[in-house]
Amino acid sequence: MSETAEATPSAAGPVPGITPAGQTPYSAWMQTDTLHALQRTVSDHPGEHAWIVHVQVSELYWMLIVKEMHSAQRFLRADDLPQAWRTLQRVVAHHAPLDAIWRSIDWMTPNDLLAILSRAVGTYGKDTALQGWTYRQMVYLFGIKQAEHLQHFEPQPQRKAQLEQALAEPSLYDDVLAFLQRRGMNIPQALLARDLRAPYLPSKEVEQVWRDIYATPDRHADLQQLGETLADIAEGFCNWKFRHLMATRRTFGARPAYFGTEGVAWLAPSLEEIPFPELWSARTFIGSPPPVCPHMARQGR
Ligand code: HEM
C-alpha cells in the first residue's frame, strides 16, 4: 500500500508541551498560517479565491478518502469487518461536502471562468485537472485502473512513481474480494492473482457471489451492509462526476479542452465508469420476480 501517498510530511514535529514561538496552540496544530498562505491568485477576478478554495478543499477531501481507504484495506486484510465498515462509512460521509462544495462556484459564467483560466495558462502553462495525483490515486483505489493517465506526471517523478505503485497494488475492491474469498465465497483465485495494473474486467463468478450474498435478506447481513456501503461510495463518486459535468457544460459549453476535442464529449462517457461493477450488475438478479410481471399483466399478455 503506497503510504507515500499520504502526502508530504511536515518539516519538523512539535516539541511536547511547548507552543512554537509566535503561534497559539490552535494555529500551531491547524497550521493556519501555512494554510491561508496557499491561495495565490493569478488574476484580478474577485471570484478566483472561491475557485482556488473550491479546488484545494476538494484536493484535501480526495487525500482524506485515500487515507481512509488505505485504513479500510488494512482492516479488511486483518478480517476486521466492523472496523473496515466504520472506516468506509466515513468515506461515504466525505462525499457529502465534496458534492455540496459545487454550490460555491455555481455563480460562474463562461466569462468568469475564462478570465481566470486565461491568466492561469499565461502564468503556469496549459493545465488540466488530469494533472492532479490525489484524484487519480483515489480512482485507482476504487479499482478504475487507467494507466494512460500516468503520462501527465512526467514532470512530477515522485508522484508518477507513487501512482505507478498504486496502479500495481490491490484496489479497495480487490481487498473486498479477497476478504469475501476468505469468508468462503467463490471468488476465483485467478482473478485475485491477475495483473493488477490492467483495467478490471467484470466477472460472472463475482456477480454470482454478490447475488448469493443478497439472496436471503437475513443471511450474510454483515456482507450486505458492506455491499450497501460500497454502493453508497460509488454513488457519491458518480454524483461528483455528474456535478462536474454540469459545471463544465455551464461554464465551458462545447469548447475544445486539454486534448483539443470537446471537453464535455471527453467527460460524458466517464459517467459510466462506476466502481465495484458486479455489485451493480448483480442487482438485476436479486429478489424474486413477481409470479406475473405487472407490466405484462397491464398489457393483457
Ligand atoms: C467549472 C469549470 C470546469 C470545467 C470547464 C472543467 C473542465 C474539465 C474538462 C474538459 C476535463 C477533461 C480533461 C480535460 O480536457 O482537461 C476535466 C477533468 C477533470 N476536472 Fe474539471 N472542470 C471544471 C472544474 C473543475 C473543478 C472545480 C475541479 C476540482 C474540484 C475539477 C476536477 C477535475 C478532475 C479531477 C478531472 C479528471 C476527471 C476524470 O479523470 O474523469 N474540475 N475538467
TrEMBL record:
Instruction: State the residue spans of region: Disordered.
Output: 1-23
Alphabetical list of Pfam families matching this protein: Trp_dioxygenase
Question: Which principal EC class is assigned to this enzyme?
Answer: oxidoreductase
Swiss-Prot/TrEMBL GO biological process terms: L-tryptophan catabolic process to acetyl-CoA; L-tryptophan catabolic process to kynurenine
InterPro entries from the entry?
Answer: Trp/Indoleamine_2_3_dOase-like (IPR037217), Trp_2_3_dOase (IPR004981)
Segment forming the signal sequence: none
* PANTHER family found in the cross-reference section: TRYPTOPHAN 2,3-DIOXYGENASE (PTHR10138)
Q: What is this protein called?
A: Tryptophan 2,3-dioxygenase
Native organism is Variovorax paradoxus
Phylogenetic placement of the source organism: Bacteria, Pseudomonadati, Pseudomonadota, Betaproteobacteria, Burkholderiales
